[in-house]
Amino acid sequence: MSQSLLEKISATQPGGGGESTPIYDPATAELIAYAPQHSTDDLEEVLRRAVEAQPGWAACGHDERSRVLHRAADAIDAHAEELAVLLSREQGKPLNGPNARFEVGACAAWLRANADFPTPGEVLVDDGETYAEMHYEPLGVVAAIGPWNWPMMISVWQLAAALRMGNTVVLKPSEYTPLSVLALVEVLNTEIPEGVLGIVCGDGQLGKALSEHPAVNKIMFTGSIDTGRSIMAAAAQHLNPITLELGGNDPGIILDDVDPVAIAEGLFWGAFINTGQTCAALKRLYVPDELYEAVCESLVDVASQMPMGNGLDEANVLGPLQNKAQFEVVKNLVDQARDAGAKILLGGNPEDSQPGFFYPTTLVADIDPHARLVVEEQFGPALPIVRYHDLEQAITWANELETGLGASVWSADPERAREVASRIQAGTVWINAHGAVDPRIPFGGIKSSGMGMEFGIEGLKNVAAPKVVNG
Questions:
Q1: What is the DSSP string of 324-388?
Q2: Based on the number of CB atoms within 10 Å of its own CB, is 313 exposed (0-12), middle (13-18) or buried (19 or more)?
Q3: Would you place residue 352 in the very low, low, confident or very high pLDDT band (cuts 50, 70, 90)?
Q4: Which one of 57, 237, 328, 449 is most buried, by most CB atoms within 10 A?
Q5: Overall average pLDDT of the 322-336 stretch
Q6: pTM confidence score
Q7: Tens digits of per-residue pLDDT, 174-233?
Q8: Do domains 5-246+449-470 and 250-438 have the same CATH topology?
Q9: β-pair type (446-447, 403-404)
Q10: How far apart are CA 325 and CA 303, in angstroms?
Q11: Catalytic site residues?
């Protein structure tokens, strides 16, 4: 019998040599495996290999690198179910719905999309007297530091473009979800040349050492705003370019011409995808007075039918929160909203007796527009629904926070929706949807939600050095 991915990537338990840490299933509290904990010496070795491999990888050219990315995508497909099961066990997300199998499939799709994008570059001036072209060349070694909510998919968002442009990559996954990214790299490296894609596992101190290392030429980070500020300070030491995708507190504004029943399922998944643990999820919903009760009723009807439980149960589409700290954040925000007079339409009552970090699907109505549950990112399965009387007030509320990742406008009139969207301060504003990312369409935040773009041709440019050839 062939060795499983989990067996290949697992560290020995304490006392067996090397540093390791136990990783537990957030749905059952059962031990999954021990993850390796890499030292700064390990980091030095992985970076050394990345530096040595980079010139040869760049010399392969775009066509060969694209072929490698396609083969890597095929390797993911060949191991898709094993990867999805491990992801479900470690992160908690169910196999079905827009969750574990969806995430693994997105990894392959993003690799293929990046492989097939046309090579960036353009003629800038050609007027008979002056000729100038823009080229994009590799930066060198890219440090990619990822989160625990979409550990595999966001790693691929970072590495796919970087590898396509001729960089080598060193990944540092979240200490909460190292196993799934280790397994992903194990699969990818069956097709990617040695040294081109490396990984180190550890806590924030190892991430700090990686981001400050002089061998690193670009830093990509997805995570919290506070850590993003630290990454930015580290990048300044060597004047490294950075891409930051940080926290969001995305607003959704419903206009007064919609059918509440027709949009209810779209609203639900916009808010509760990955059990609400998504940076660009719908986290505060503004509803006009005349539709307020109908929208609330329609959302309750949809949400109450979505089963939550162990992700390995094929029936479930919602799972636990990934860790206890996030569970406490959601619980405290909902409890405070309830104590302040908000109405709990659904949920809000976690069962202390069951194992795992399950917080029930929760809808909160009649809430003050400046309650903590509204103005602080909950990052979990609790949606505040705010009543508005005047559209101008809703737009003001949508824009008054420091975040600006995503937003949405819901209307039967696309032109009217686009006019409202033009006034919302966010990197992306969706119309009649929320959080629908596409590898062809650039994505990034403004204000405290980050800087730089990922996806599409712009994403390739953001992991490359522009060079003008003039003459």
A1: HHHHHHHHHHHHHHHHTT-EEEE-----TTSSS-----EEEES--TTSHHHHS---SSEEEEEEE
A2: middle
A3: confident
A4: 449
A5: 98
A6: 0.96
A7: 999 999 999 999 999 999 999 999 999 999 999 999 999 999 999 999 999 999 999 999
A8: no
A9: antiparallel
A10: 24
A11: 245
Strand partners, 175: none
Q: Which of left, alpha, beta for 439 (phi over 0: left; psi -120 to 50: alpha)?
A: alpha
CA 56, CA 225: separation in Å to the nearest integer?
A: 36
β partners of residue 149: none
May I ask the CATH architecture of the domain 250-438?
3-Layer(aba) Sandwich (3.40)
65-106 pLDDT, tens digit each? 999 999 999 999 999 999 999 999 999 999 999 999 999 999
pLDDT for 13 equals: 60
- So where are the chain's domains? 5-246+449-470, 250-438
CA atoms within 13 A on the CB side of 154: 26
Provide the token pair at 207.
């991430």
Alpha carbons 150 and 279: distance in angstroms, whole number:
10
Backbone φ, ψ for residue 343 (5° rounding): -100, 125
pLDDT tens for 379-428 read 999 999 999 999 999 999 999 999 999 999 999 999 999 999 999 999 99
Contact indicator for 178, 172 with CB cutoff of 8 Å: no
